[in-house]
Structures are given as C-alpha cells and as structure tokens.
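Input record, target 12 of the design panel.
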C-alpha cells in the first residue's frame, strides 16, 4: 500500500543545526519540527528527554512533535533505554520501513534501487537502455514494479530519478541533456502513471550534492560545489546553505564552458567544452589517441590498466586529471566555494591522480587558500542516494494528499 497519501502534510527535510534559530512563533513550529527530526536522524536512537535537552525545546513541545512524526510514519519507537533509576524512556529512530524507489539514468544503462531513510540499499538492479526513450522507460518501469513487488511489506514514499541533464524546476522536463537525447519525452508523467507514486527528477550532480547533505559530512558547510564525472561533466552548487538552480534550472553548467574553441566537438554543439577534456569519455579518447588500436571500452577498464602500470593508460588519465584541475579554477574564481567534491570513476584511483588535480587547481588561485578538494561519499551509489534525497526534500513542504489518488499494491 502506498503510504504517500496516508500521512498528513510533511516529510523529512535535511537541515543544518549549526544555522538554526529556535523560536516559538507559528512559523517557528515548522523549524522546531525539522530540528527534532534532524536530531532523530543524526543521533538515533534517542529518547524524548535527550531531544529536549539537545534542542533546547520544552519537553511538551518535543512530545507533541514526536507524536506527529510517529503518526506520519517518519519515526518509530523502539527499545527502552537503560537508566540507573527511574522510568526507562523509549528510544526513537527513523522508520526504516519507509522507503523510496530510485533510478540513476545514464545514456546506456540505468541503476535502480530501493533506499530507506537512512540511505541503506534494500535492493538493486541494472537495466540496459536503448536510444528510444519510450522503450527505455518501459524497461525501467517493469524493473521498478518487480522491485516493489518484492518489498510489499514496506511503505513507499515516492520515486526519485537522477538524470545526466538539466531538469526544469517547474515542468520537471529535461531541457538540456547532450548525452541523453530524451528532451521531448515526459519521463515524470509516464513513470508516475504506471507506478502510482509521486515522481521527482533532478540533475545527477544536484542529486549527488543532496546525497552529501543528507547522508554525508556537510554539516556546517555553507558554500560547496560538487563535480560529477561520467560520460559528461556536471556540477551542483551550494551557496549560503542553499542549492542553486538558476533560471529554468540551468545553473551549474560549467561543463559546457569552452576551454579551447578549436577542441573536440561537444554534445551541446560547441567545441572544446570542459567536459570534452575532463570527463570519463575524454579519458577514453586520450587513450585511443595514444594507442591507435585500443580494445578498452569502459573507463573502469582504463583505470584498471593504470593500476597495472600501463604507461599509456596512466598518461591518458593524467591528462583528464590535469584538465579537471584546470576547469576547477573557473569554478573557484566564479563561486569561491569552501569545498569542492568530486564523484565519479576517477575517484577510485584518487591516490594516484588526485594530486594532479590539486596541483593544477592550486596554481590558479587568485588570492588566499584554495578550496578543500575532497572525494564525495558513496562512490557510484551517490546518485542513487541523492535521488532518494530529492524525494524526501521535496515532500517536506506540501500536502501529499492533493497529488495522487489512493494506489493499490502493484
């Protein structure tokens, strides 16, 4: 049964406790609710009295909020805490029976999973894709139905999909996807109609950044950029604690800033874009330029060759790392982030190539220290966790009962 329609009003929203101010006004009640929910997430299992002590909220306020969250099925009561004397309090945790179906769509393959509120993966699947979006989405839908049927005891909050392109924040349609030619296909409506669950879409780099905010180590960070490396190159931007989407959701297309107007033709139609030099596809092209008869077909194979000491592979990936660092200069000059996070296949060999990226980034700093350069958590699973975070974030601010009729178990 779809619990989406059965819980009133609000969901789980990741907030940064370092920048929250508590209050007692009507508007502050929502902030207080989010504080309690975030404390349960970060300190679970936790007792009501400890929630009151840590948050600074009155015990009666905490008790009221907790009862509402239990009613909405975001948190559950568990075992009793051991105390030297007095009544043993019941401990609270996130409800791991509430889950999200997620998909990480790439040009030739989609990764699917069921993820709970703690970011744990309960099921995973791979679905080969074809050029035709209708046939590809049909395959994804059938796989999602099968995964849902295998978890009928759980409550499904919705479906999150990360895409290698920019999604219009209002229409939820792809408007720029040079490596995925699906711009005219209404993914959201088709999937939503088939599965009777609310569907949320976003760019894969934004999803990865959300994954860091929800399940990673970003508490206290207000300004960050995440760079996602795959067939292309995308970026997600956090400025003053807020994700930036820009007009029509197109903010962050640093991958399509030309580094060399005489460079390779990019999928966007320009020449010499950053992604044509720093993406996984670029590394494969560099290798083919060095080894004329290459049998390497995937970046994973190329990186394996670097581990085996293949000189040509090391040269190719080193060139990718050099251009990655060169492009990060543009990001630093434009946004001056505190942290730059990198995700993608290259991070599997960061010990060998990360210093090249760091050196090129640091050499172009205009003033002061360079941003911290770090690998995003989760590796290749970051997009899937991020797709779950997309759902949880967007379901925190409206009444879900107005969106879909009651659904039966599929």
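The sequence produced for target 12 reads:
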């Amino acid at each position: 049964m779809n619990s989406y329609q059965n819980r009133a009003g609000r969901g789980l929203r990741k907030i940064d406790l370092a920048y929250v101010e508590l209050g007692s006004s009507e508007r502050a009640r929502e902030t207080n609710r989010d504080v309690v929910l975030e404390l349960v997430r970060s300190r679970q299992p936790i007792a009501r009295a400890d929630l009151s002590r840590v948050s600074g909220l009155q015990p009666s306020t905490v008790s009221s909020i907790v009862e509402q969250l239990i009613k909405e099925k975001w948190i559950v009561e568990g075992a009793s805490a051991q105390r030297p004397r007095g009544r043993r309090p019941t401990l609270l945790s996130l409800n791991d029976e509430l889950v999200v179906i997620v998909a990480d769509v790439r040009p030739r393959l989609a990764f699917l999973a069921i993820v709970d509120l703690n970011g744990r993966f309960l099921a995973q699947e791979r679905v080969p894709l074809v050029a035709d979006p209708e046939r590809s989405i049909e395959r994804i839908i059938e796989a999602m139905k099968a995964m849902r049927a295998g978890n009928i005891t759980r409550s499904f909050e919705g479906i999150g999909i990360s895409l290698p392109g920019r999604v219009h924040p209002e229409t939820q349609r792809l408007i720029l996807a040079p490596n995925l030619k699906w711009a005219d296909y209404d993914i959201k409506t088709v999937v939503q109609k088939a599965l009777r669950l609310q569907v949320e879409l976003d760019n894969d780099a934004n999803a990865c950044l959300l994954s860091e905010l929800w399940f990673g180590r970003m508490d206290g960070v207000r300004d960050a950029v995440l760079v996602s490396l795959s067939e292309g190159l995308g970026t997600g931007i956090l400025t003053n604690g807020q994700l930036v989407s820009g007009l029509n959701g197109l903010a962050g297309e640093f991958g399509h800033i030309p580094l060399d107007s005489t460079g390779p033709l990019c999928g966007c139609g320009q020449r010499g874009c950053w992604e044509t030099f720093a993406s996984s596809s670029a590394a494969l092209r560099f290798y083919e330029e060095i080894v004329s008869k290459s049998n390497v077909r995937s970046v994973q194979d190329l990186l394996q060759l670097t581990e085996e000491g293949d000189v040509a592979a090391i040269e190719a990936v080193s060139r990718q790392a050099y251009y990655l660092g060169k492009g990060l200069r543009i990001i630093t000059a434009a946004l001056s982030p505190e942290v730059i996070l990198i995700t993608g296949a290259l991070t599997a060999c960061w010990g060998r190539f990360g210093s090249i990226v760091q050196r090129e980034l640091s050499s172009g700093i205009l003033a002061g220290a360079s941003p911290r350069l770090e690998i995003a958590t989760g590796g290749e699973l970051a997009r899937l966790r991020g797709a779950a975070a997309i759902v949880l974030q967007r379901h925190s601010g409206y009444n879900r009962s107005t969106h879909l009729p009651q659904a039966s178990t599929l």
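The first strand starts at residue 46 and ends at 47.
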